[in-house]
Amino acid sequence: MIMATIKDIASKANVSPATVSRVLNYDQSLSVNDSTKQKIFHIAEELHYTKTKKRYKHKAKSIAVILWCDRNQEIKDLYYYSIRNGIDDQASALGYQTKVFYNTDSLSEIEKCVGIAVIGHRQYSAKRLKDINAFNKPTVFLDADTLSEDRSCVVSDFHTSVKEVINHFLKQGQNRIGMLVGDLDDDYDKENLTDFRFHDYKSYMTELGLFNLDNVIVGKFTPETGYQAVKEYLQKENKMPQALVVANDAMAIGALKALREAKIAVPESVSIISFNDTTAAEFANPSLSSVHVDTHEMGRMGMNVLKNNIDGDFKDAYKVTLKTKLVLRESSLN
């Protein structure tokens, strides 16, 4: 992996380093249009990888790439953007072109595609999943374990990484460990949130005798909702946990802003470790400790699985699990 600097990104995007820094930190006060933001995020992700794309002169067959979010949401969470980039790169190398379908797009054009790559699963409505399955085409799910539904999938080993994060906090003497969880439902059940990381967190913390529902904060995976959730939590005069597991980097960046405004020092008063280790994690202030998920590789592997399905090389559904790695930076006591 090639690590980019802010100056590298700024030079290629033809903007100032300060603008890059503020975009990667999701600064809402910055007056920059969405196309410029998307350009910066794209370059930041691109500079993390050495790409060798094979170009095909003939008209390539199409792969449908389906996302549960809209374009704006995708920009706010580089996790999904990077998975899609991985799919795009490997599709190109294998001689396919991709067509993206966001949450409000009609799926009718999928009829012309030879295969489907679905990013996520729980985020979709039952009707949307039914509509996708109705095409009866080779399909792979990414970032979702669908093997029990007889669907091939590519996932990361979050079960191990959640325990690793909690154990790290415990080694630093931090026993009051909370979680900033992601849930898209406005009417969520705090004891049974849909985020699969929460289920692992709750299970392991219960096993340790440390689980306390009062230490659970809920947002919607974006910087804005991470900020708002932590701010409202503090306004209710709740005492912040000593450490916070955060479902993704985007929400963690929002949480950092709320804690900074409340003059709560990170990591001295609250340690934070998030998930995904997107480009934004490295440039956050302070830089985020995060569980690294090779999202680009997840996308590439997903495309390989889909090609096997299209070619008929594998008749049965199968699952590929990618290893994660805890990357420690400034936001946690280490």
TrEMBL record:
Key words of the record: DNA-binding, Transcription, Transcription regulation
Entries under InterPro entries matching the protein: HTH_LacI, LacI/GalR-like_sensor, Lambda_DNA-bd_dom_sf, Peripla_BP_I
Gene3D superfamilies per the UniProt record, alphabetical: 3.40.50.2300, lambda repressor-like DNA-binding domains
GO MF annotations in UniProt: DNA-binding transcription factor activity; transcription cis-regulatory region binding
Domain of life: Bacteria
Residue intervals of the HTH lacI-type domain: 4-65
CDD domains linked to this entry: HTH_LacI, PBP1_GalR
Claim: Transmembrane helix is one of the keywords in the record: no
Descriptive protein name: Lac repressor
Provenance organism: Lactobacillus hamsteri DSM 5661 = JCM 6256
